[in-house]
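R.M. (postdoc): so does anyone remember the format we settled on? I'll just put the structure tokens first.
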């Protein structure tokens, strides 16, 4: 990481508790996605004068779950604070949040997330996690620059956020990416939020070059975009320093290919934090926390270790496999269906999920739960590969049909593709190819690698159905 030693990155992530049915301070439904605008509101989340908030106890339970998963120290007594600022999406003129100064405390302090970049393991320390309400949603028709007006949907107003604030421990966009991946995974495992939902996982990135003021890039929605925005900012800031410009502390917006300055000279004091006098201090105790600790589900790290132990997957494979809980659950379902599997088959199954399936999901921008793919299909593919009924090339060509839920048997029947292992047939094919490619065949005497080119021709003639191992053996014999 030497190229980035002077880079300082800290991340603030807003995680929406999408598994919570109601809002943080009222009983309106917090499920606003796809709902008619301004239908999930009441005087409290509209911020009408005289309305009084009441804290949602389940939100505290969810926050406790995340705090435990992140190994934070939970503060047993805390107040909510008002963070004052004016914005159309914030009808009260303040956001109910938490503050860790002026006698206030965050929900929980410290905590740690372990990341691995280029084989190096590093612990990123957390500063704190706190609870706060989400503002309403501003909707621009078309784009923010061309829309003639802004529309406001108060359905989101008052839904629950947990903000996770890291220490400025990251030194490169790649470290930030790994940190986000791990955090997203832990959040998914705690089942308090579905991080794949649009807007459920929003990142503010603080970035500076050692010795200079920082900029904060607000509201970035995906890991890839965070990485791009950080790379852009590093270049921009370094160039400005080189030119002798003085960087000022500012808030910037990520535009998809560049950052744009939004506002400068915005400091904590501008928010005039003070205690929310409409809410009593909240108290938890050891018993409350222990009850939640006992029910804490298995976390990705434990699951990874279990996969290494029970299925003899290597550390790398197990680490990637457990990252997305849906994929890991899918893996286990398949494993349970097929008792005869041994380490070799576990590995094949895992590879199929990590390569073919993950690639398809990425390309189609979806997740496994949204597809018709079933664990038994992967089990059948693994068996067919193992028994050499199909080659991996043929298997790979099945992915599109598999995603529609079609069984492997049916796909094989429909495509008519299966491995050609009949020696007579293969031999005549090999002879044909040698005859057609005398130059390559002659080249083989000096360059044994030339056999791969001939093998490729046989595979091509059979649309990938020739048994690759047998073909190679036969070619060797024929070329002697
Ligand atoms: Zn409400
Ligand atoms: Mn916040």
């Amino acid at each position: 990481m030497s190229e980035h030693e002077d880079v300082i990155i800290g991340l603030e992530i807003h995680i929406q508790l999408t598994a919570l049915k109601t809002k943080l301070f009222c009983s309106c439904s917090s499920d606003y996605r796809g709902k008619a605008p301004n239908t999930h509101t009441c005087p409290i989340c509209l911020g009408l004068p005289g309305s009084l908030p009441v804290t949602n106890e389940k939100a505290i339970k969810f926050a406790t779950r995340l705090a435990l998963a992140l190994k934070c120290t939970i503060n047993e007594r805390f107040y909510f604070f008002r963070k004052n600022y004016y914005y159309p999406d914030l009808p009260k003129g303040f956001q109910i949040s938490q503050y860790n100064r002026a006698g206030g405390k965050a929900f929980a302090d410290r905590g740690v997330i372990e990341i691995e970049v280029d084989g190096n393991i590093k612990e990123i320390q957390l500063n704190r996690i706190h609870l706060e309400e989400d503002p309403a949603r501003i909707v621009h028709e078309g784009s923010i620059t061309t829309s003639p007006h802004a529309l406001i949907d108060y359905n989101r107003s008052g839904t629950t956020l947990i903000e996770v604030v890291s220490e400025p421990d990251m030194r490169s966009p790649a470290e930030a990416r790994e940190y986000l991946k791990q955090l997203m995974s832990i959040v998914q495992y705690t089942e308090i939020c579905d991080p794949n939902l649009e807007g459920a996982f929003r990142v503010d990135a603080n970035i500076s070059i050692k010795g200079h003021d920082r900029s904060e890039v607000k509201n970035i929605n995906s890991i890839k975009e965070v990485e791009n925005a950080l790379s852009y900012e590093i270049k921009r800031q370094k160039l400005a320093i080189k030119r002798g410009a003085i960087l000022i502390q500012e808030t910037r917006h990520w535009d998809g290919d560049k950052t744009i300055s939004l506002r400068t000279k915005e400091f904590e004091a501008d928010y005039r934090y003070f205690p929310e006098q409409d809410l009593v201090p909240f108290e938890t105790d050891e018993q409350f926390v222990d009850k939640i600790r006992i029910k804490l589900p298995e976390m990705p790290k434990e699951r990874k270790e279990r996969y290494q132990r029970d299925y003899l997957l290597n550390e790398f494979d197990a680490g990637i496999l457990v990252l997305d809980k849906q994929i890991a659950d899918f893996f286990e379902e398949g494993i349970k269906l097929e008792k005869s599997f041994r380490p070799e088959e576990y590995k094949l199954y895992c590879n199929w999920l990590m390569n073919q399936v993950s690639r398809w999901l990425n390309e189609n921008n979806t997740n496994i739960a949204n597809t018709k793919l079933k664990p038994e299909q992967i089990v059948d593919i693994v068996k067919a590969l193992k028994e050499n009924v199909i080659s991996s090339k043929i298997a790979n060509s099945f992915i599109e049909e598999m995603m529609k839920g079609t069984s492997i048997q049916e796909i094989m029947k429909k495509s008519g593709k299966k491995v050609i292992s009949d020696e007579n047939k293969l031999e005549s094919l090999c002879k044909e190819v040698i005859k057609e490619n005398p130059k390559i065949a002659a080249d083989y005497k000096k360059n044994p690698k030339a056999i791969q080119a001939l093998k490729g021709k046989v595979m091509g003639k059979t649309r990938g159905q020739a048994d690759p191992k047998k073909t190679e053996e036969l070619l060797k014999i024929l070329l002697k």
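R.M.: ...and that's the designed sequence above, right after the tokens. Also worth knowing: Residues 299-415 form one domain. The longest strand covers residues 120-133.
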